[in-house]
Amino acid sequence: MSTPVNRSLPLEQLEGRRWPNPPEDATSMVKNVHELRRRPLGELQAHELARLIGQNVGLPWLLPPAVEILRDTATTQAAGGWYDDDLLYAVVTRDADAWADFPALARDLKEIVTGLKDLSRYVKTEVDAFIAMPLRDEGHAP
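Structure tokens predicted for Contact-dependent growth inhibition system immunity protein (142 residues):
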């Protein structure tokens, strides 16, 4: 997505698709994802972005702000601060197809995560796999 996203709009409006209400017996995860899609993008917290991204919901609209958060927090992590492993894990575990339309964003993320230290073992494994993942070059066919 090359144009800036209006973060005052909810994901369902950005997608142009309203999901029906979840069934009464739906899990709390399903109910939460439905609710989050109806909230303005700019109001979503990192853990809420992680939940949606982890479910592969709204990736074209959610990956850019997620990478922005990771970029903004990487410097505090390097200084010994807290780092949001949930958002990082959700973003780096998306497959190559999810990044196909965002090669520049994926390269930015690779640069960001390369500098992270003291990650938990399970996140470190996924970060290393993301760094090793081949990316399609911009403007070239896969």
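Residues 38 and 79 are 36 Å apart (CA to CA).
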